[in-house]
Amino acid sequence: MPDDNDIATLLAAVLDDPYGSVAPPIAQTSLFTFDSYQAFEDRMAGRTEASIYTRVQNPTVAAFEGLMAAAENGEAAVGFASGMAAISSTLLAFVKPGDRIACVEHVYPDTFRFMERVLRPFGVAVNYHPQTAFETDPDLLKGVALAYLESPSSVVFKPLNIPRVAEHAQRHGTLTIIDNSWATPVLQRPLTLGIDIALHSASKYISGHSDTVAGVVVSSQTNIARIRDLTLPLLGAKLAPFEAFLLTRGLRTLAARMRQHEATANLFVDRLATLQQVRLVHSPGENAVPGLGGRSGLMSVEFDDTVDIARFSDALKHFHLGVSWGGFESLILPARVGLAQAGEQNSMQKFGVSPNLVRLSLGLEDAEDLWADFTSALNESAA
Q1: How far is CA 198 from CA 165, 182, 213, 265, 270, in A?
Q2: pLDDT digits (tens, 9 = 90+) for 217-274
Q3: Cα separations in angstroms, 91 against 176, 231, 344
Q4: In whole angstroms, what is the distance from residue 109 CA to residue 340 CA?
Q5: CA-CA distance, 247 to 135, in Å (whole number)?
Q6: Strands 100-104 and 125-129
Q7: Each residue of 146-164: b (16+ CB within 10 Å) or e?
Q8: How far is 377 from 227, CA to CA, in rounded Å?
Q9: Which of 26-30, 235-239, 363-367 has the lowest mean pLDDT?
Q10: Which helix (H) or strand (E) holds 371?
Q11: Strand order from edge to edge, sheet including 320-321
Q12: CA 309 vs CA 142, 157, 350, 357, 361: distances in Å
């Protein structure tokens, strides 16, 4: 992350504790009281910004939100109880029946489900396009109310030329939303590249410890005010004070953790290229597209048919089977199990994800230990 956006500097600026605490105090309360009728009336009339009820406002949550807004170079931020709460609350705040959404292929599976099972029946048209279509077709977004983006995309991790897509969107008056969970503000800051709204599953790298479920949205004051007015209070998926405290803790080590994730990922990418059982490695690196400043620890690998995916998975010792990512521990997610939802047209089936694809979340363990575990299991899978 650039020096002018250093996490430690931002944290010091956001925290304002009269006791000199180096960590934000946890305001573990459901409501806040007022000293006078006038103070209460002023707050209810919107003339002041004092906290009133934790479902909509809390000092500990506000400290995290301020830090995230600064880290993403946004004007404001709002925290949520999960990444999906952030995604669904943002989409519902900006679309209405009759609107059209253009979404990237290989989008996060639960985002795909939300669009198909909630927004489409609600009367919102959703079309899915390859990353390249957003870049090369300047009229793709004509008549489109909202473009939902990921860079890189889920599962196959295709990066997006964000400035070019933002230029197309601005020409057509299309609102742009991007999920920046993979890169974090350390590696990519979409708002500086022309995107309107950046959001995160903060459960992942922002937390970094696999002990928090949360989401956060960063944008202009106007856009965040709309979310705070419509979906945050009325859907109620608020971020709790203790989770906000944990997320602030995670932000303090984010840059250092991302550097180690990247170092391990670089080692894997270089060595995977030498393995005959590996067909493709999906892991964009630094400068793969404008504005991408490095490689995170989340990637996917496509094996050839000689690899028994189940046997390979069971032979791993340091990697665990699991659906999330971004913590200390390394994880594996076979596409044919973790990315398939029986009984519905899901993104894996619709967009042709290989059944031999395996997603890897490279954690903070010793890189050589992880590589030895990976190659040992690969050899055993073909035995």
Answers
A1: 14, 12, 18, 24, 31
A2: 999 999 999 999 999 999 999 999 999 999 999 999 999 999 999 999 999 999 999 9
A3: 11, 9, 22
A4: 9
A5: 34
A6: parallel
A7: bbbbbbbbbbbbbbbbbbb
A8: 47
A9: 26-30
A10: helix 367-381
A11: 278-282, 298-303, 357-361, 331-334, 320-321
A12: 43, 20, 22, 9, 16
How confident is the model at residue 321, as a pLDDT?
95
The C-alpha atoms of residue 11 and residue 23 are separated, in whole angstroms, by 9
Residue with tokens 């956060």: 216
Secondary element (H or E) of residue 61: helix 59-71
Amino acid identity of 165? V
Report pTM: 0.92
Residue with tokens 């946004």, as numbered in its chain: 74
**3-state DSSP call for residue 178?**
strand
Q: Which two tokens stand for residue 343?
A: 């009984």
Distances from the Cα of 242 to the Cα of 16, 53, 85, angstroms: 17, 15, 17
> What single-letter DSSP state applies at residue 117?
I
- Domains of the chain and CATH, by start: 3-252 (3.40.640.10), 255-381 (3.90.1150.10)
- How is residue 370 written in tokens? 């992880």
CA distances 236 to 55, 80, 129, 177, 360, Å, are 6, 9, 32, 21, 33
The secondary structure of 236-268 as a DSSP string is: --BPPHHHHHHHHHHHHTHHHHHHHHHHHHHHH
